[in-house]
Amino acid sequence: MDQLMFSLYFQYEDVSRQDPLLKPNHANVLEVPGSCKIIVVPKTTPSIKNGKLAMEISYGQKLKQRASTGKSFRSNPFLGSNKDKKGYVSDLA
């Protein structure tokens, strides 16, 4: 039981609460969407990881695994960084 509570606490404090703050399109913390509730589904298939499932439930987005991580950082359009057609930063220097 303690392990379950620790994993839920870790998921909320280190992933669910911090992830919207790391998105580059928010000018201040008041623009970050809040979570009104966290739903825990105990009976899931073993192939789904808990963190991925929690992110899909709380934000309503399906997470994808990208083949290349070199262009995974989104750029802020107001900073004038070099971007490709999809809005990804092409140089990380």
Question: Can you lay out the helices and strands and say which pair or pack?
Answer:
Blueprint: H1 2-16, H2 19-22, H3 50-59
Quick overview of this protein structure:
With 93 residues, this protein is an all-alpha fold.
Question: Can you characterise this structure?
Answer:
With 93 residues, the chain is mainly α. The chain has two domains: 2-59, no CATH class; 67-93, no CATH class. The chain is 31% helix and 0% strand. The chain is elongated and about 35 Å long. The protein starts with a helix and ends in a 34-residue tail after the last helix. The model has no long low-confidence stretch (mean pLDDT 57).
